[in-house]
Amino acid sequence: MTRTVYVNGEYLPETEAKVSIFDRAFLMADGVYEVTSVLGGKLIDFDGHAKRLKRSLSELDIREPLTTEDLLAIHRELVARNGIEDGLVYLQITRGSPGDRDFAFPDPETCAPTVVLFTQNKPGLADSPSARTGIKVISIEDIRWGRRDIKTVQLLYPSMGKMMAKKAGCDDAWMVEDGAVTEGTSNNAYIVKGGKIITRNLSSDILHGITRAAVLRFAREAQMEVEERPFTIDEAKAADEAFVTSASAFVTPVVEIDGSAIGTGTPGRVAQRLREIYLDESRKAGV
Ligand code: PMP
User: What would the CATH number be for the domain defined by 129-285?
Assistant: First the structure.
């Protein structure tokens, strides 16, 4: 099926959508993105994603090309036009195309940001096999740049990390810096020990996950203890459970790290409970 996508004010068949070869994101990875999940035709955590998008743009001095209301309307229009029940909406905003290549930023008065959105249809997104079986991760060195709190489209290393995991017969990689886990290639990382949920504190070392914020809020509301601090791979191996969160994986249990089973080697109770709460609450609050 040919998708309808959005490019700079127009809804077009995906085969007709075009972006300049001089676009700053194409040449310099000079752009930011968001991924919002859709469940039962409703957008999950849209406000959180819109807020983080604003912050990413502002940190990079890229002009906000559209209001949050406009963005919501475009998201909804794409979900409707593409008949998405369960899936994702991908949004990317770049510094635009100055019509040539230059390291210096173009004049924002004459170079408008590029805005692209498209949907991904994922029937049964909330009922994925990996949520039932849990995933296996390897650890790799975190060699990304130092502003991981900005959601840029520089995804080469996370992409290489996924391939390293695949090669090792695993599903994902947890990145480690100065002996402590930062995050997964496309998710935030957690361990559970003695009923306490441990996840790295927010800083420029990690992306401030929208799912992370919601899950920690629900955990605290359910009287679960949360500790935000760095943890090591050895601690993870000795944990009772582990899990990851992201907009597309929600809460997904981790059952093995570097070949060592975590706890019983099956999805843990805390992860399963948080997944249920997150999905229930988010569906209710979907827009
Ligand atoms: N960390 C990284 C590096 C990611 O790419 C993602 C997913 N975009 C996350 C964490 C999770 O963020 P969110 O819950 O907002 O999807």
Answer: 3.20.10.10
Q: Strand order in 10-13's β-sheet?
A: 10-13, 4-7, 114-121, 87-94, 31-39, 42-43
The CATH class for the domain spanning 4-122 reads alpha beta
User: Which residue's alpha carbon is at the smallest distance from atom 9 of ligand 1?
Assistant: 187
Give the integer Cα–Cα distance in Å for 257 and 117: 35
Give the pLDDT confidence score for residue 1 in this predicted structure: 77
Q: Please confirm, yes or no, whether 167 is among the known catalytic residues.
A: no
pTM of the full structure: 0.97
**Ligand 1, CB cutoff 6 Å, lining residues:** 35, 183, 186-188, 207, 209-212, 245-247
Q: Side-chain half-sphere of 202: how many Cα atoms within 13 Å? A: 9
Out of 151, 193, 196, 284, which one is annotated catalytic? 151
Domain boundaries, the chain: 4-122, 129-285
* pLDDT per residue as tens digits for the range 172-206: 999 999 999 999 999 999 999 999 999 999 999 99
- Cβ density class 234-256: b for 16+ within 10 Å, e for less: eebbebbbbbbbbbbbbbbbbbb
Q: For the segment 24-36, what is each residue's pLDDT rounded down to a tens digit?
A: 999 999 999 999 9
Coil, helix or strand at residue 211: helix
Q: How far away, in angstroms, is 270 Cα from ligand 1 center?
A: 20
